[in-house]
Amino acid sequence: DLAVQIDGDGQHDPSYINALLKEVFDGTVDVAIGSRFLGKSAYRAPLLRKLGMFLFGIIASVLIGQRVTDPTSGFQALNSKVLRFFAQEVYPVDYPDADVLVLLHYARFKIREMPVRMYENVDKSMHKGLKSFYYVFKMVLSILVTMLSKRHILRKVTRPQ
Question: What's one GO MF term for it (predicted)?
Answer without folding.
Answer: transferase activity
